[in-house]
Design goal:
It is a single chain. The longest helix has 37 residues. 54% of the residues lie in helices and 17% in strands. Helix 1 packs antiparallel against helix 2. It is globular and about 70 Å long. By secondary structure, the chain is α+β, with helices and mostly antiparallel strands. It has eight helices and seven strands, in the order H-H-E-H-E-E-H-E-E-H-H-H-E-E-H. The strands form two sheets. The protein has a five-stranded mixed sheet. Strands 1-3 form a two-stranded antiparallel sheet. It starts with 5 loop residues before the first helix and ends with a helix. It binds adenosine-5'-diphosphate (ADP). The site of adenosine-5'-diphosphate has 21 residues, from helix 4 and helix 7.
Amino acid sequence: MIHDITELERLESVRRDFVSNVSHELKTPLTAIRGYVETLLDADPIDGPTRGRFLRKIRRQSSRLGALVSDLLILSRIESSTEPPEKILDLRSAAGEVLSLLGPASEERGLELVAEFPDEAVEVLGEEEAIRQALSNLVDNAVKYSSAGGRVVVRLQAENGRAALEVEDEGPGIAGEHLDRIFERFYRADRARSRELGGTGLGLAIVKNVARRHGGGVDVESERGRGSTFRLWLPAAESAE
Ligand code: ADP
């Protein structure tokens, strides 16, 4: 009997890469935290401002660890859920809630957050928490990567049995060579910027998994220096049924 194990081997190598990436991502903030704690313990005497600076760095690295673990849990929950989504939910109100949660952050960054929603509900069959997470990741990225004075437009429409959510920003854009890969776990087009902004590198992988699990998809149009438009679509409730 001959078994073709090519696919099994590929999956095993994907798993190995993932474990090694996760370990690396966890190790970096942990090493930094340990370094600051040891300096605080050894330095004698340590002046107030330096102490404060080190403690703030420890806080920042711990938040980074927290965000990473939380995104890993979300990803694993989505990937391991086997039940077909069966609850009807209105994307318009889910997106509205996401926008009001992210409103303060975008105001703080001097951005204009615009919602272009239809008058009627846009229903899809889905898991509310997962969908809300996907919407939030897209809008959060648009806000995070934009610079002050920019505009972020969130458009929602129902068309041909699909619900489509578009998030358009005027941020730095993404160079063509990265576009195929940014939905991969831990792939970053601009590593330094993602780190500085507290990114985990998992946001778009979560969006892609949520879309796939609901029988939908996600894509991006972007050019360096010209902003980005991410488009998430899901089958409308009646066609999904
Ligand atoms: P991160 O936590 O690093 O933001 P994501 O998975 O959400 O991770 O995104 C992957 C990468 O795609 C980011 O590191 C960034 O380089 C790029 N990216 C995502 N959204 C945008 C955007 N709206 N504008 C510019 N670059 C983006």
